[in-house]
Design brief:
There is one protein chain. The protein folds into 4 domains: 128 residues, Immunoglobulin-like, CATH 2.60.40; 53 residues; 224 residues, 3-Layer(aba) Sandwich (Rossmann fold), CATH 3.40.50.410; 34 residues, no CATH class. It is built from 13 helices and 23 strands. Strand 11 and strand 12 form a beta hairpin. The protein starts with a helix and ends with a helix. This is DUF58 domain-containing protein.
Length: 468
């Protein structure tokens, strides 16, 4: 990401002394106590079967117990404090959903004795790791770093606790728990790595990187870009005769696609978006596609806004007026990183009325949802309302589970019923999409993992043909 995006969240790796949280017996001490207790059975058996030797065994057992308890007491007194141990954590500044990251723990031993540690980290619930706990051996005045991987599986604010360590006593009979560092928070964003890979590329290179092909455009853009020398093939309409007379050579005007247009995303946050496609939900796929296509639009000089509806809580990310410029994508990221799908049904008509009230200027409205045939009346009414002022595109996520069901062989009566129901569901859905197209509504019907490509391709075609 850019420097602006990298500054969205900061995480200072501050070294803080330890705070002792109690001492407990180690496995070694419990094992030794277990053996000593079993030896008591041998002494009891000797008293029954061999009384003359029982006294010697009993004395030996008592001596072993005294030595064990004495060693445990001495080890407890010398090992209950973990003096001079400091630690810090350095997580990534930004986390992307589903993308592996590395967290670095730094431990420093400023105390007088050697420390053998079991190291763990207090991770938030939405982060997963297989790299903890870890063992670390620290000599006096030594520093060690521990890197462990983690993968975020839910967006939003992730709150780390303190670093937790178990320090062995000098003889390993006790373990003292200590906490290091401070609690800190990072933000888990949608998967923005696709955006960072496009930042250094031109628009044409970005499209090729995404696997999209440009179609031959009709005519040229209407916005003046610059004057340049006349080239063979330029039309007479492009020739700037005043500049040509002044410079005494032919000069042509160069035009570009219209800029300063508005693209407003209507994002369905209802219960249907909970459906999963692979590791991500439909809602997370929709957010990733929204961000990538919004970045392409911002790079083209257009403004991008957001209207989220049907969410349980949209206080932070429900509405964003159209923004443009390099900082626009960062603002959009910060606006939606903790936006989640809710349990309500989408109300298309009410959402359309709110959008019309908030956005009077003509814009490309992209409605991202998961269509059902029962939505036909309400959706068509909402689209008819929006089309009075805006160019409307409906982007629907197709459930791959239904397609996979149709590809399975039918062997039983139950499988035949499921297949027939799936075919009926898809047929009704196709009819709804045809009704939208008949009303001159742009329709994108895509699998969730390909939605970003479909949105960018359609946006670029609209741009090239001058419809926006």
């Amino acid at each position: 990401m850019s420097k602006d995006t990298a500054a969205l969240t900061g995480s200072a790796a501050e070294t803080v002394g330890n705070r002792t949280a109690g001492t407990r017996p180690s496995r070694r001490l419990v094992t030794l106590l277990g053996y000593w207790s079993l030896a008591a059975l041998a002494v009891t058996a000797a008293r029954i079967w061999s009384p003359p030797s029982a006294t010697a065994l009993a004395n030996l057992w008592w001596c072993a117990g005294a030595l064990l308890f004495g060693a445990a007491l001495l080890d407890f007194l010398t090992g209950r404090r973990v003096a001079g141990l400091e630690g810090s954590r350095r997580p990534p500044g930004n986390l992307a959903l589903g993308v592996p990251n590395q967290v670095r723990l730094t431990l420093r031993n400023l105390g007088p004795r050697r420390l053998c540690l079991n190291v763990c980290d207090a991770l938030p619930a939405q982060l997963h790791t297989d790299g903890l706990p870890r063992r670390a051996l620290l000599e006096p005045q030594q520093e060690v770093t521990i890197d462990y991987p983690l993968v975020p599986h839910r967006r939003g604010r992730a709150d780390f606790g303190c670093i937790e360590v178990l320090a062995d006593s000098p003889w390993g009979l006790w373990q003292t728990k200590a906490t290091l560092g401070r609690p800190e928070s990072v933000k888990v964003y949608p998967n923005f790595l696709g955006i960072s890979s496009l930042q250094a590329l031109s628009t044409e290179q970005s499209l090729r990187f995404l696997g999209l092909h440009q179609r031959q455009r009709r005519g040229e853009g209407m916005d003046f870009r610059q004057l340049r020398e006349y080239r063979e093939g330029d039309s007479q309409r492009q020739v700037d005769w005043r500049a040509s007379a002044r410079l005494r050579k032919l000069v042509s005007r160069e035009y570009q696609d219209e800029r300063d247009q508005e693209i407003v995303y209507m994002l369905d946050c209802g219960r249907r978006m909970h459906a999963k496609d692979g590791e991500l939900s439909h809602f997370d796929h929709a957010l990733n596609a929204l961000l990538l296509s919004a970045y392409v639009a911002i790079k083209q000089g257009d403004a991008v806004g957001l209207e989220a509806f049907a969410a349980d809580n949209t206080s932070t990310g429900g509405r964003l007026p159209p923004v443009k410029g390099e900082g626009g994508i960062n603002l959009l990221l910060n606006h939606v990183y903790d936006l989640h799908s809710g349990t309500a049904n989408p109300d298309y008509i009410s959402s359309a009325e709110q959008l019309l009230a908030a956005h009077p200027r003509r814009a490309l409205v992209i409605l991202i949802t998961n269509l059902r045939d029962e939505d036909s009346d309400e959706l068509l009414a909402a689209v008819r309302l929006l089309s009075r002022r805006h160019l409307v595109m409906v982007a629907s996520l197709r459930e791959t589970a239904v397609d996979e069901l149709l590809r399975r062989p039918v062997r039983t009566f139950g499988e035949a019923v499921n297949t027939a129901a799936a075919r009926d569901f898809l047929q009704r859905r196709v009819q709804l999409l045809q009704q939208l197209r008949a009303r001159n509504v742009l329709v994108v019907d895509s699998e969730p993992r390909h939605l970003h490509m479909a949105l960018v391709q359609t946006y670029w075609e609209l741009k090239r043909c001058g419809r926006i």
